Amino acid sequence: MNYIEKLENVTVLGAAGKMGSGILLLTALEMLNQKLKPENKDKQFVLYAMDVSNAGLAGLLEYIKEQGIKYAEKNIVGLRKAYASRKDLVDNEEIIRQFASDLTALVRTGTRIEPAFESRIIFEAVSEQPDLKLDLLLTINRNSRQQPWFFSNTSAIPIAWLDERAGLMGRIMGVHFYNPPAVQKLLEVVKTETTNPELSYFVTEYLKNLGKIFVPSYDVAGFIGNGYFMRDIMFAETLVNQLQKDFTFSQSLYMVNKISQDFLIRPMGIFQLVDYVGIDVVQFIMSVMNSYSENEKIHSPLIDKFMELNIRGGQNPDGSQKDGFFQYKNGKMISLYDTGKRRYLQPEEYAGIGDTHLGPLPHSWQPWKKLVREKDKEGVLNVYFNELKSSPHPGATMAVEYLKKFREIGTGLVKNKVAFKFEDVNSVLTKGFHHVYGPVNSYF
């Protein structure tokens, strides 16, 4: 069965979620682009969007339509050719509306799993709960007549574990999209020793058609992205604990967040990134990774503390940021939670003391937003890091310590056979986390 035949009937599980809706949109666009080719005009593509949330599904078709309009507006030249045989479509606006209509017509929403029994491809993007994922895979595999291929968006659970327990006999791969899937270019793909090679061929063509970049990972819990991220969080916590010998919790956490963002020139500080992902999500990923880790404890008492306080972070349905380590207003951090005082503190209660202790940034420093557009990043970074290493200020000293740990984590992912090579680790950090440099570099 070729690529198009496999693509004719697809199900996305967890389609109403942020990851599932993005995967659904990308798959719908690929289906329609294939259907608009003359050789595929008689093919009947169908895309099942399944979720337990009726409320979430209610707005899904409108989301697909809106995104279809945006896509068509950007690709109108190609679409005029694709719809050339439609004499009733005269101007660009008519073609754009038709494309959006055709796109939504591919999608069929529902809360029951039975339609998935007819699908040849299953994209699994439900919440990161091993038993839930396993139950869905088992149910579909037992009832399907299609011998479907499964592509799991898990960011932590080993694929071999799902394969063995669901009895899929190599018909599963990890295809881990980064958030949000429709925007992020990077994916991690994970094969097991028993993965059917045909799945890899399909994924390669599918992702190539979507314009994505993918990095292979060994089948180790957490894979490359979370293998790095969880250890980054744990190290940041050790720095917070060290600083609390002389400073309050809020001052300490503020300083580490500032070091990880400003001094390391990253798009977000480490604790702001945890808020974005979700404190609850981070805790769960750590628990999954820890259950498969024999020689290392993947755990954060600080994350546990905030969960006990019912402070979870993450995003609201409209995409706005929920409160976590920081409190947010219009997307900006306005205060920081202090575990001792049990309330959010205003910046004047922690920022001034923290900034004074850290000291100034090196003179050659550039903010992340400017540096990502810099043509000579390497040259700028070499000058910056040389200044950082020679600076006597505590902030620079801690940043250098952080950067050494950054490298240790990155090289460890290759040494411990999580990543295949250093370039893959750097690709995940630069293209997935949008850092301007990878952990394995020549700056130190």
- Which band does the percent of strand residues land in? 5-15%
Number of domains: 2
Q: Provide the CATH top-level class of the largest domain.
A: Alpha Beta
CATH architecture term of the largest domain: 3-Layer(aba) Sandwich
Structural class: alpha/beta
* Chain-averaged pLDDT: 95
Straight-line distance between termini? 51 Å
Would you kindly provide a written description of the structure presented here, covering whatever features stand out?
- This protein has 444 residues and is an alpha/beta fold.
- The protein folds into 2 domains: 3-217, Rossmann fold (3-Layer(aba) Sandwich); 224-432, Orthogonal Bundle (N-(1-d-carboxylethyl)-l-norvaline Dehydrogenase, domain 2), CATH 1.10.1040.10.
- The protein is built from 19 helices and 11 strands.
- It has helices at residues 3-7, 18-35, 54-58, 60-74, 76-82, 92-106, 130-143, 159-166, 197-210, 223-243, 249-263, 270-277, 279-291, 301-308, 351-358, 368-371, 377-390, 394-415, 422-432; strands at 9-13, 46-50, 107-110, 121-124, 149-152, 172-177, 186-190, 213-217, 326-329, 332-338, 343-345.
- β7 (186-190), α9 (197-210) and β8 (213-217) form a beta-alpha-beta unit.
- α10 (223-243) packs antiparallel against α18, α11 (249-263) packs across α15 and α13 crosses α14.
- It is globular and about 70 Å long.
- The mean pLDDT is 95.
